[in-house]
Amino acid sequence: MSTGQKRNYGGSAAVFLLAVLFLWLSPAYGSGTISENFTNNQFNTSLWTLQSMGQGTTVEVINDRAEVTVAGPGYAGLYGYGFTLIGDFDMRVDFTLINWPTNNGTQIIIYPFNPPQTMQVQVARANVPTDPTQKEQYFSIFSGAYNSTGVTGPTMSGTLRLLRTGNTMEVFYWDGANWQSVGSKTDTSLGGRVGVGMNIGPYANNYSGIPAIAAYDNIQITYTTLGPGFTPTGGPGMFLLLE
């Protein structure tokens, strides 16, 4: 090629390849803590994304927290697209039930995701109108295995927790005095690089049609190693892994 001659690599394709190369070469960062308290109704947009999927459910950062209004079959919440967690981590998220009518059929979930298995593990607080003995409950799901426990005492606020040590994942809720385990599992599939998310929406197919409002606040993630994020390609649960 002669001096001064330019070669056309195809615009957007070149940009995409450079983005992939950048993420592949991105370093992993050492141990630390991610804290998000939504102070002054602001949050770290380089780490978190507000997103909704489906109908009738919206999310906004107001009153120094992320509030989600459920008024339909959709989901909405906060998704950590800007980072991933490698190795051990401990994630804790406070929640408040702002408007939580009887038999509303709504759930609050926090979970790790690893495309394409976006919700292999989850811990949740739910209102279950179809279960007369445990209408308010915490539950966990590990690769499809369901475990639940009823709620006693004050119920309008609490904390959900994900704890990973090696290939073991355990999930908890705070009962006001102690951490209560809602399930655990050890498997090599649970030890890989993950993102994290939290959302609010219908409990299975039991949403009653009654509007409900809840909020997340005081997110604390202590991690061993922080890696580059996953890039969303659609709504919650849809990801493109660039490695």
Description:
With 243 residues, the protein is mainly beta. It has one domain (28-240): Jelly Rolls, CATH 2.60.120. It is 6% helix and 51% strand. It has one helix and 17 strands. The chain has one helix spanning 11-25; strands spanning 32-36, 49-53, 57-62, 65-70, 75-79, 84-99, 106-113, 121-127, 136-142, 145-150, 157-165, 168-174, 179-186, 195-202, 212-227, 231-232, 239-240. The strands form three sheets. Strands 1, 3, 4, 6, 11, 12, 13 and 15 form an eight-stranded antiparallel sheet that branches. It has a seven-stranded antiparallel sheet with strand order 2-5-14-7-8-9-10, with no helix packed on it. A two-stranded antiparallel sheet has the order 16-17. The chain is globular. Mean pLDDT is 83; it is low at 1-26 and 233-243.
From the N-terminal CA to the C-terminal CA, the straight-line distance is 33 Å
What integer is the average pLDDT?
83
Amount of beta strand: over 45%
* SSE arrangement, N to C: HEEEEEEEEEEEEEEEEE
Care to count the β-strands?
Answer: 17
Low-confidence stretches: 1-26, 233-243
Largest sheet: 8 strands, antiparallel
CATH architecture identity: Sandwich
Under CATH, the topology can be stated as: Jelly Rolls
Radius of gyration over all CA atoms, rounded = 20 Å
State the share of residues found in helices, binned by percent: under 10%
DSSP summary: helix tally: 1
What would you call the shape?
globular
Query: How many domains comprise the coordinates?
Result: 1
CATH class category label:
Mainly Beta
Structural class of the helices, strands and pairings? mainly beta
